[in-house]
Amino acid sequence: MAKLGIGELDLAGRRLFLRADLNVPLAGGAVSDDTRLTAVVPTIQHALGAGATVVLASHLGRPKGKPMPELSLRPVADRLAALLARPVPLAPDCVGPDVEATARDLEPGGVLLLENLRFHPEEEKNDETFARGLAALADVYVNDAFAAAHRAHASIAAITRFLQPAAAGLLMQKELQALGRVLEAPAKPLHAILGGAKVSDKVTLVEHLLDRVDALLIGGGMAFTFLRAMGHDTGRSLVETDRIETARRVLETARRRGVRIVLPVDAVVAAGLDSPSGRTVGIREIPAAEMGLDIGPRTVERFATALRGAQTIVWNGPMGVFERAPFAEGTVAIARAVAESRAFSVVGGGDTVAAVNQAGVADRIGYISTAGGAFLEFLEGRTLPGVEALTDRVPEGCQAPLGVPRP
Fold first, then answer.
1. Catalytic residue at 196?
2. Which pTM was predicted?
3. Which of 61, 96, 373, 381 is catalytic?
4. Catalytic residue among 74, 132, 198, 336
5. Structural domain for 302, as ranges
6. What is the secondary structure of 222-249 as a DSSP string?
7. Is 381 assigned a catalytic role?
8. Of 40, 161, 238, 311, which is most buried, counting CB atoms within 10 Å of its CB?
9. What does the pLDDT look like over 139-194, one tens digit per residue?
10. How many CB atoms lie within 10 A of CB 400?
11. Domains in the chain: how many in total?
């Protein structure tokens, strides 16, 4: 991705509009998980160290275009102030004359956090007038919100029509480099692990990966649609009957291309999601009245054995109903297997990242993405609006001030 990076900008004395993804969970009026905040801190510190003032913008939750006090970014401002060890005032809005005046009055080293962008319906509509109002707050634009880069929203796409140059932040650059390494020039063999509930959520991803991977390991609920396509009885396990033919097509395509498909050979079954425990049975032995809710130990070993030969691993989606303790063991075990591999590994998706953290192996994963939807869409080969909108890098020695290409 030949996009301009923040390190190529002359930021001294400039006001920087920094679009971040600060969409963090709240509990009791405070931030309960600051992972996304700590991820953007290096970009903020870089900008301040280069002499810029920072106007920081983000969404939080889904307020549906109107102010909601419980979705104010006030707790985020408080937590950022602690992380940065400096005041982070919260603007009363994100556009308008008062906000413009506050941004203009920022002292060197100042950081201003705008109120929730989605309090305005124009944000999600990619409205140009709203985008122009955001652009009026700064001199230069940086996007560090890869997790929101698949959204064509005003603060992500339209704003770049009025505020240039538009550069990638440090986190955005890391995301693009890691995912680009998987798709464009992976060390082979490349193995992908896919989980989650439904085949329908990942059909495009599976089909795209079949052109690139050497092996595809499938767990989670989606595995049962593939197992049914192979003629297995799956009890009450989740099966998308309208996707069985799709699964057959994927299996046949993989066979023709020499891609190994690795499916579960045993499962942890129970009567339902609320069952206090489960028991392990072979895939051919799932009772008619029970459902598979996690992969079993033989499948864990089968997947781990397959991963030992990989040079690159990409993983998205849990192996079972990970949010329920009795059915989380398979996902955690796969996290450990990925960590133990010598491969360069990239992990993305909320449950998948949670499993890596729960297993205590986050420091042994090559790259952990902050994104969910954008992670999947990038791997599907789609163009992300937030990436496309960034200024293209020009050859070294041809940059004008602030990284704007010379005419």
1. no
2. 0.88
3. 373
4. 198
5. 188-342
6. HHHHHHHHTT---TTS---GGGHHHHHH
7. no
8. 40
9. 999 999 999 999 999 999 999 999 999 999 999 999 999 998 998 889 999 999 99
10. 12
11. 2
